[in-house]
Amino acid sequence: MAAVTPTHVIRASMGDYTLHIVRLPATMDATNTWASGIPGIVSWQCTASETPGTQTNSGIAVSLSGSTFTFTPDEDNQSAELWVISKS
Question: Does residue 73 lie in a domain region?
Answer without folding.
Answer: yes
